[in-house]
């Protein structure tokens, strides 16, 4: 069952009924100001940090699920009938409804009783504000007398404090209304450096800033007292719950359309000595008023929206493909790339499943996200790498997460996820491969944001590798610490007495549990760092890292191979995990993918056997599950993984993030049909037809799909912010389609399904543009036989480098 359709030409997903199985969301903003918006206008906004600079309030886990957002009410002032063009929150019957989620904008339109309303939400480039452009059309034969009410509920900035510290916050809310602009200045008394504003382009009939006055006692957003009576109360909030609402009266002739613009924004006072004296409550509005006035003009809005579209044209223009599969084209050209950019901006911090409070930017997450967006914004990728590296500790260890506003590690999380440091090597390597910019390796970067501890980025990478080398267990495999990639596999938990509370080692980083996954990741990272060392003209370092990779490979083969697949780990007491010796959790996906990616077992048949085991034991119609068999009950020695019911999340769910590792591994082994088959199983566009089962958005990847042990096998959860986006983009573009940046240039090495006859692509790389055609006889399999570059025959798969600005025509021939 479908709830909408793709409009490929306009790069939009069109939702034609509001009651989607879950709220289907989109993101506003691409730089510093961001917002979440659902297909019924739910969501919230923030500046840079979803916890510390939250502009508007949102209540997670509510009933209904999606409550609170950017609400507009339309009222017929003759009959008293009022409704919401986004359906929520009044949920009034609509004559028609359409939501178009586009690239950093959403447009919601609806009609009722001869009145049509369309609202466009977007964040202009270079601004810290969002625009709501509302167009009201009278489709009746008679004049319509209407009222338009806007509404937002202000969050008192720190979202955690806002949701918990009521004894204080019910007395701190403050607003100021000047010339129709509502200024939210809670916290201004103590900080005096930032505020929010909410403005309207039309003369106001009234306003409200006190929630209980606007809504009325014992009422909700579905029936506000001000809207019901058709007149605002002109309330000014002093404490309690500040909101912003404008009341505009409109008289529309038959066929007439009126445009009303609302602007919600964030502003900071300039950092000078000319601040108002201590205790003053006067806002410095001089700088923000011209901005407000400019964006309330329809021509400015139109120009800003056009500029946003042009920006996405440039971002997506770096890679375009035309293949035999429309689902591949749709995801590669638009939606997968778009999701990669959103995960770049937000990591895992703010979605409808992450509240924006408990998590900031992930060290591991952000490094992996680089893989999917570096070709679109290499200059911002460089900045992100340096930000991430500056949170690394001098030991080479890493805070698992850091706050984007402060760029400081979250001390409550601390270190102990022992895979984290190695991801920095892989992120930096991806950047240098894409850009050829080796200067980043010499860039001075502090440890733990201490300016006195600066060292070249290359030294940070050295310490990342050393961190694993200095923490090996009895099987010569890396210690897992608190966990590795699988945050829920906590093998340093144990109990001496059944039924007793669990204990942990004094220092989980030094616990005895070992990870085969990290061992494979170490081999992968050591080889990448060896290549970077050669680029730095450090042959001694390169030899050292290759030797370390070889040594770890030996430990994996000796202690990590189980006979038909790679083991997952060893627990605190040295018992194998992910082994045929276990009654449950015998085989895990992660080491099969990572070890093969690292090149372990390619020459001796182990890699091919491990991938057959994945097909035989883990693959389902909805994707590859994380492990089998599922854990039926809680096992204290395994930690959180066994706390989930079978088939969900880390307990035998289809953790989509890991599926691309198997796609890449199959491509490495020249299995194009199987690699592409796995790609299609979790491709959101392919799953659109089963939206009533999948439930999440059909235009972006979800983190998890329920596995076969769950009663809801095939149901997705945790959409949008997931490493799945970047890794799937890498799997399809660099390995299946084979357009792969390397340190020495651009390689063209596709591994295609047998029934394909080829594909076409345009790829921007290091300033040049490559127009690529791949030709293959249907039914054949194999790799590229030779290239033809600008008419010249070239042996091998490496495309010769071209000067910036050049347009290079490349033909790859697969003879089978």
UniProtKB/TrEMBL annotation:
<dbReference type="InterPro" id="IPR010383">
    <property type="entry name" value="Glyco_hydrolase_94_b-supersand"/>
</dbReference>
<dbReference type="InterPro" id="IPR012341">
    <property type="entry name" value="6hp_glycosidase-like_sf"/>
</dbReference>
<dbReference type="Pfam" id="PF17167">
    <property type="entry name" value="Glyco_hydro_94"/>
</dbReference>
<dbReference type="InterPro" id="IPR008928">
    <property type="entry name" value="6-hairpin_glycosidase_sf"/>
</dbReference>
<dbReference type="GO" id="GO:0016740">
    <property type="term" value="F:transferase activity"/>
</dbReference>
<dbReference type="InterPro" id="IPR052047">
    <property type="entry name" value="GH94_Enzymes"/>
</dbReference>
<protein>
    <submittedName>
        <fullName>Glycosyl transferase</fullName>
    </submittedName>
</protein>
<dbReference type="InterPro" id="IPR011013">
    <property type="entry name" value="Gal_mutarotase_sf_dom"/>
</dbReference>
<keyword id="KW-0328">Glycosyltransferase</keyword>
<dbReference type="Pfam" id="PF06165">
    <property type="entry name" value="GH94_b-supersand"/>
</dbReference>
<dbReference type="InterPro" id="IPR033432">
    <property type="entry name" value="GH94_catalytic"/>
</dbReference>
<dbReference type="InterPro" id="IPR037018">
    <property type="entry name" value="GH65_N"/>
</dbReference>
<feature type="domain" description="Glycosyl hydrolase 94 catalytic">
    <location>
        <begin position="312"/>
        <end position="738"/>
    </location>
</feature>
<keyword id="KW-0808">Transferase</keyword>
<feature type="domain" description="Glycosyl hydrolase 94 supersandwich">
    <location>
        <begin position="11"/>
        <end position="270"/>
    </location>
</feature>
